[in-house]
Amino acid sequence: MDTTVGYLLGENEQADLFKDPAMLKRFQDIATLPEKEKECLLTTVDHFIKASKISLM
Fold it and tell me: Residue 19's pLDDT is what?
């Protein structure tokens, strides 16, 4: 079917969102971090995404 479960379940609109092996590896690496480090990293990413969205407005 060349798609992902997330796309089929309506969790995202991009059929190929998690097909990039490099991004999958990053997500796997993040998942194995200690909880505090993972939280800090995800907070940083969240801030970056928010700033990027604001600059597009």
Answer: 72
Rounded Cα distance, 29 and 23, in Å? 10
Contact indicator for 41, 33 with CB cutoff of 8 Å: yes
For residue 41, the Cα-to-chain-centroid distance in whole angstroms is 12
Candidates 43, 35, 38, 16; CA nearest to 27 is 38
Separation of CA 24 from chain center: 9
Whether the predicted pLDDT of 54 surpasses 70: yes
Confidence bin at 44 (pLDDT 50/70/90): very high
